[in-house]
Write the structure tokens for this entry.
Amino acid sequence: MKKLLLTILLASPTLLFAQGSQVNTQGIKALGMAGAGSALFVDETSIFYNPGVFVNMKGNAISAGATAVMYRSAFREQGSFEQYNTKFKISPPFSVFATFGPKDTWWKAGIGIYTPYGGSVDWGTEWPGKYELNHLSMRAIYIQPSLSFKLTDNFSFGGGFVYNVGSVDLGRSIPVFDSNGQAGAAKLTGVGTGTGYNVGIYYHLEDAIAISLSYRSKVNTKVTDGDAEFTVPSALAASFPKTNFSAELPLPSSFNVGVAIPLSSQVDLAVDGTFINYDIYKSLTFNYKHNTDDIIGDDPLEDTYQDKKYLNAFSGKVGVNYKPSTTLQLRAGAGYVVTPVRAEYVYAETPDNNRVMASLGFTYALSSKLDLNGAYTFQRILQRTVTNTVTGLNGTFKTNIHAPGISLTYKW
Amino acid sequence: MKLFNNNIKVYAAVAAISLVAACKPSIEIDEPKVTTQQVDFSKYIAVGNSLTAGYADGGLYLEGQVNSFPNMIADKMKRFGGGEFITPYFSESQHNGSGYLRLTALVNGQPVLEPVTTALAIRGFYNNNPEKPLYTKFTGTAINNLGVPGMRLDMSEMPGLGTVAGNPYFERLLPDNASPLTTYQSYASNQNHTFFSFGLGNNDVLGYALNGAAPTLDPTKALISEATFTEKYTNFINALTANQQKGVVSTIPDVTAIPYLTTVTNQALLAAATAAAGMPISAIFIETKSGTRPATDKDLFVLPFSSSGLLGKPNALGYPYGLDPRNPVEDKFVLDANEVIEVQNRVIALNKVIITIAASKNLAVADVYSFFNKVKTGYNYNGIAISNKFITGNAFSLDGVHLTPMGYAIMANIFIDGINSKYGTNLEKVDATLYHGVLLP
């Protein structure tokens, strides 16, 4: 049973952290430009995009935002007339950013609490890939205190410390059958923590150009005492004890370059490019505290190791911001993400491929102190026909993501 | 404007709901392109042996019949003009048919098997011989699944096989007034079929291998010659294609790679004997055609040997069975290294015959031989490890020879692949994850 129960590792939560449902919704303004704007928006959300920027804010601000990420994937096995969809779910990433410090000086402090990635995919227990995955939901909350410093009027830098709390809930069918022919099931739940940092520098010439360079470190989330529970025929109960598992889920480092250029007094253009060092993600290992062996000459529950073999990834985003009046800004953007996932390592948890995205957004000043921001993004993970080299699942995946978001900013 | 203000909550709610509804991602992945079809699936018949019939766990019973691979193929043909497919099911009240083996417990990690003896379809015994059960006859006339467990190619032209003295699974298909001279070939080829699958030939090798290639007068345990095979195969295919019908024929698997012969190994027996004796046992002695010798890892023991309780049992002279060269493991329990090669080579030769005949008649080939080799190596199907391991390999049922419903579903796909690639049809693959492997208590 060694191999047939290779089980748990096959679905790695990391992917979902990393790609798949990944929609960068931390700043609703940037969301309205498909993620561009790290060099354009000088506000509290810069804590996330580039902590070297927010020292340039005129005052202080606090904002809270939420997004409804609606994510749906579909699968059609090769040559099949049947299509399977993930259940419709809305995952609600949120973010809170606040800045503190005296006005018009050389430093500012800030804190961001945000959900960088995370989401939920549920294929159910009745689809051809059920032995790869039933469902996976991930939550990660990043807490990032930050400092931002101004060296000259044109040049600033900053950094933040990232503390991450993540949770995972994963279920899959396992091919052992009770007397009714019902397949077994595995359920893994766990909470992990990790740390990292975020640094950036910012250069701007008033009414000419702004450049943002930022670097997010790798964040290694360690799950040490996850719970593993199995539903199996009673004859195998002793071989599948309730046990604990540990695993390390690395989130890759990334380097972002953003440029903002005013096209006219009312229109700004922003371009961002991000290099993501995904090739550190080579494999995933799950260690079970309690391993069992020798049932019918096989080992039911063993530590598992699985190849991922990610490539480096890149995303490019471009957006425009238009200010028709002092109280209203309108924006639009588009982007493209090159997937880090090789075709033969595409798993159902994140049926990834290159992705196109388009966004619209606005900011409306309700008063001199209160801004309402809204955005809507549509993303499509392009159709991809794959044969997974590990599980053998062979078919076509396609994913659409819709995500409306809203935030309120209070400035003082 | 006032009206608008009064209703603003309603407008907002409507807007929010329609936004969410519009956002609910709907996706369409294009269906496979369907090409114009050259094949008439309106009456498909399945000709073959136990594998065709859906035999599993050492018996033929209703669940196995329902999960036969021809049933699955016929289901996929429906989209492309396939007609009704009638399987000679056992009735609900006799759903356990011939009886079969069930796994009742795991003791120290080892399976305990028990025969199912209720709800059988046994109507009597030929000559009151308990080894020769007769089964409740199927009452329908038109039958599409003509699979007969135990049927051999070299018996396909043998009159009398459909009588109570012959093959009981064939006998139960025939009407009471059938001529005792009815042969399986004449019966199968007179069904007015438009398409057929043909899977005879395994038993002509398997029967020999499962008996350890021991000398015997039993014709069901003989090894077919290439000449006889060619003659009978040609005759049968000629009969089935008399009206230029299309069909699919299957190659013969390497029968030495099935759990029946791969589970009980020399190493396992040595370990068991050592444990039982409380001292190191270094050799298991086997009887071969060229004399008695110690077994090697290339000699294959049959599955029932492990539960026979014979190993180490002293004979009248006090020599422990299999552990003393003067009381070796009998030939019928061992397919020795030379016999393994003999069987493997014969299978290869017979498959060449099959492929040649299929090509001459423009028939599709289901490469079951390659598929079983793949199972022997082990591979992953949609996250399920498929191998020839007994019980845990998911493909083979508890008799170590026949398949599980999941195994049959994957086998159906081998046929579907063969049909699609030969005739350019678009038969959908069977989703084998809908079917189970070995059932555990």
The first helix of chain B runs from residue 2 to 6. The mean pLDDT of chain B is 92. Residues 103 and 113 of chain B are 5 Å apart (CA to CA).
